[in-house]
Amino acid sequence: MPERLAETIVALWTPLIILWITLPTCVYMAPMNQAYTLSTGSPLELGRQSEELRILNRSKRGWVWNQMFVLEEFSGPEPILVGRLHTDLDPGSKKIKYILSGDGAGTIFQINDITGDIHAIKRLDREEKAEYTLTAQAVDWETNKPLEPPSEFIIKVQDINDNAPEFLNGPYHATVPEMSILGTSVTNVTATDADDPVYGNSAKLVYSILEGQPYFSIEPETAIIKTALPNMDREAKEEYLVVIQAKDMGGHSGGLSGTTTLTVTLTDVNDNPPKFAQSLYHFSVPEDVVLGTAIGRVKANDQDIGENAQSSYDIIDGDGTALFEITSDAQAQDGVIRLRKPLDFETKKSYTLKVEAANIHIDPRFSGRGPFKDTATVKIVVEDADEPPVFSSPTYLLEVHENAALNSVIGQVTARDPDITSSPIRFSIDRHTDLERQFNINADDGKITLATPLDRELSVWHNITIIATEIRNHSQISRVPVAIKVLDVNDNAPEFAAEYEAFLCENGKPGQVIQTVSAMDKDDPKNGHYFLYSLLPEMVNNPNFTIKKNEDNSLSILAKHNGFNRQKQEVYLLPIVISDSGNPPLSSTSTLTIRVCGCSNDGVVQSCNVEAYVLPIGLSMGALIAILACIILLLVIVVLFVTLRRHKNEPLIIKDDEDVRENIIRYDDEGGGEEDTEAFDIATLQNPDGINGFLPRKDIKPDLQFMPRQGLAPVPNGVDVDEFINVRLHEADNDPTAPPYDSIQIYGYEGRGSVAGSLSSLESTTSDSDQNFDYLSDWGPRFKRLGELYSVGESDKET
């Protein structure tokens, strides 16, 4: 360590010594030939008092040496002397005081106010602060008056190599393609040194590789990492760890160093062709497999990864190229062989295919390594299966006239068993497609016959499904659609296309077209419809109307004269015969109703009723309707008014049959005994004796004052409870101050004439232990169970 410290001191301070010798000493000339001198400590005499500079008197001001230096990280036992301030005004009488101010004055730097010596009292770090700006001044010791203007100077902290290089962004990761040529750039790294890059070699860095050779190299000054070996193969080794060192002092001995790691990953290139795992593949498939089903998979392995390993599969040769296809599965990187067309074991039992796998993305740099493809042979064996029947056609189209006779043959379907055993076939109709059972089929030969009459006008097409079933194996079933078209025959007579009603103006002219009519026919002839119109033979010489055939197959009705009067005849009926052009032709007679109406001068119909003549002049039908509506509204208002008046004059007394209390039904009350077969009547409780006296209203507060009741004498024990209830009920009914809810008073009265009598304990004169409940068994199962419960209770008490 002493030798290293000596080397560091010599390296740092040698330039300062040379500068010290060559630079002249400068003197700051103060006014009136007074000189202010600044002296510094010699670099070679650290910790000692520097010798005093010579003071030269000149007539003019000169440059002043305004910098001092102090070594960083100095930690001696005494404060280090940085420099000394001195002035010619100080004869040594100690009447001058030196004052120091600025950065760190008093805390880092301290001045002897008598001698002017400046000391560093703290350990300094150049990386924290490189220089300090201070101001020095000489003042009178007694008066503190300035003797000279203040002088500013700088104390610089000199650097030593106390910081090792650091890789701030490490560890590093980089990639380089495999098979790269020698010297391919991988990446570059950067280290930083906190020491002074200007002074000395403390921050001069040199890079080297500690681990990672001989695969990679590094430029010592730029730190660019390059490949040191050509054609590195990712499939052999994919990742490399490189340890990089940065050393200061230009890499010389004694310099500080720092290290980092660089992980280099080789990226893949397409330098390997695909290769099938085996040269021959065997697959078997039933002949009845569904089209598009995967039969098997073949795979060509590729050492590359990603898109460089993607391969496309094709069938390049074989006797089954038309029946099979191969597709590429991008996820599994294999080829899937699928069926394109149906197989037939009876026709061919095996197929041979030649498949090829070729890389999709080929790198032309490695095309010389050979073709990036491979081939394999695939043999497919077809297995026999019990197949369903096969129809001679996938669909059938049959035609039949709508007047075809029942049980006539419409057409025939045929099917066969493709298996070698050739089972017989049985035909049937899927009745879900023939709900009305209009057709039948012969189960043996497949002939379709008509079961019910057809009507083309109701349905032109009938779509049914024929089922073919093997007799030896009923699970083998095939279906085929059959479309039956019903052909038209002339079985419908023509008629008016709509319900026509013509209007004839009284002031119409002769030859005027009253109405144009058209006809329709439900039939559908091949050449279209053509209708013939005529009047009935007895109406040929009709004096009022005539007809005219139009080119568009319609008919116009014309008036023969004018002067029609609706008072004489309001309606005319004109029968018209319509015939079609079928074979044989059909005809029908349709009647046209013609009404005579009053019209305006321009022929607009205004009224067609005879009653219009009796209407008052100037009043239309709308006005009469409005007047009638007003009359009806007035009548309704009068009726409502009378009804309200009558309702207001009704007496407020509620009759017996309207008593609201009868609407209250209690379902938990016992009835009037076994003889009571009618609904519960609360009137019995109101007045069991049938007293039909006047009952005051209970729903309003009476105007009479409350009359206190007469006190009743105590009731003896032998009084009749029925009589007691009647008295209390009579009092309540005739008390006008009793509220409505007091009108319903139920005392458990059982009714008169009941065989069971009263079950109330009020009439019980004996104790429970003296009663016998056996008689309840005669009343029915429910009362029998009740008697058993009471009997058991009594037995428990005795026990």
From TrEMBL:
InterPro entries listed in its UniProt record: Cadherin, Cadherin-like_dom, Cadherin-like_sf, Cadherin_CS, Cadherin_Y-type_LIR, Catenin-bd_sf
SUPFAM superfamilies in UniProt: Cadherin-like (SSF49313)
Protein's membrane topology: Single-pass type I membrane protein
Subcellular location: Cell membrane
GO molecular function: beta-catenin binding; cadherin binding; calcium ion binding
One GO term describing the cellular component: synaptic cleft
The keyword Heme is assigned to this record: no
Short name of one Pfam family: CADH_Y-type_LIR
Ranges of residues in domain Cadherin: 87-167, 168-276, 277-391, 392-496, 496-618
Keyword annotations: Calcium, Cell adhesion, Cell membrane, Cleavage on pair of basic residues, Glycoprotein, Membrane, Metal-binding, Repeat, Signal, Transmembrane, Transmembrane helix
Signal peptide interval: none
Chief subcellular location: membrane
Record-linked SMART domains: CA
Biological processes, Gene Ontology terms: adherens junction organization; calcium-dependent cell-cell adhesion via plasma membrane cell adhesion molecules; cell migration; cell morphogenesis; cell-cell adhesion mediated by cadherin; cell-cell junction assembly; homophilic cell adhesion via plasma membrane adhesion molecules
Transmembrane spans: 12-30, 613-642
Record protein name field: Cadherin-8 isoform X1
Organism from which the protein derives: Cricetulus griseus
Highest classification ranks of the organism: Eukaryota, Metazoa, Chordata, Craniata, Vertebrata
